Amino acid sequence: AQSVxxxxxxxxxxxxxxxxxxxxxxxxxxxYLFWYVQYPNRGLQFLLKYITGDNLVKGSYGFEAEFNKSxxxxxxxxxxxxxxxxxxxxxxxxxxxxxxxxxxxxxxxTQVVVTP
Amino acid sequence: xxxxxxxxxxSVIEKGQTxxxxxxxxxxxxxxxxxxxVMGKEIKFLLHFxxxxxxxxxxxxxxxxxxxxxxxxxxxxxxxxxxxEDSGVYFCASSQDRIEKLFFGxxxxxxxx
Lengths: 116, 113
Known about the structure:
Chain A is mainly β and 116 residues long. Chain A contains no helices and twelve strands. In chain A, strands 2, 5, 6, 10, 11 and 12 form a six-stranded mixed β-sheet that branches. In chain A, strands 3-9-8-7 form a four-stranded antiparallel β-sheet, with no helix packed on it. The N and C termini of chain B lie far apart (37 Å). Chain B is built from no helices and eleven strands. At the A-B interface, β5, β6, β10 and β11 of A face β4, β5, β9 and β10 of B.
């Protein structure tokens, strides 16, 4: 069965410093990997995805993620964090090809707090 | 373009009562999903509609939950009778056909007392 782990409940970082949010996954086949972000009182918003190809994926708001097959990881990164990046971040996986495109297994989420 | 809208944003009910959640997807999106996040844990898949048909309801917890999507437009999720463990945030999402990006509503916070 597929699963996603986000080992950190919360990540604290000072504005301007690099931000990393960790995610590891377990799937039976080739993974489709996603990051979504939830700002307060808003729905989840798509940040980026890895389907195939280049292991480094660039997404919205200056975020990027690196797919590492040997470590089964898909960590989210941003070189210089902003206070406005403070939000709840969810990693998700779809185990192709049996499931529908939108049936995802989400992690428990990581709260990012960026301090001025 | 209007996003996915959910109503109500919050609902507080007593155990044993009935609650109906509504989701209006983005116009033209045939795929509609319901998800739930309980006690700050993982967001769990509940079910998937393609137009008015239930494509996958493997995540529905039990028969107290009934989802409908009349006419392939908006969807409702009814919980009857509600139990304490049903408390959580219920998210609706929609997507275009074979597009991996989901568009989520802001969720309904359900509290069963």
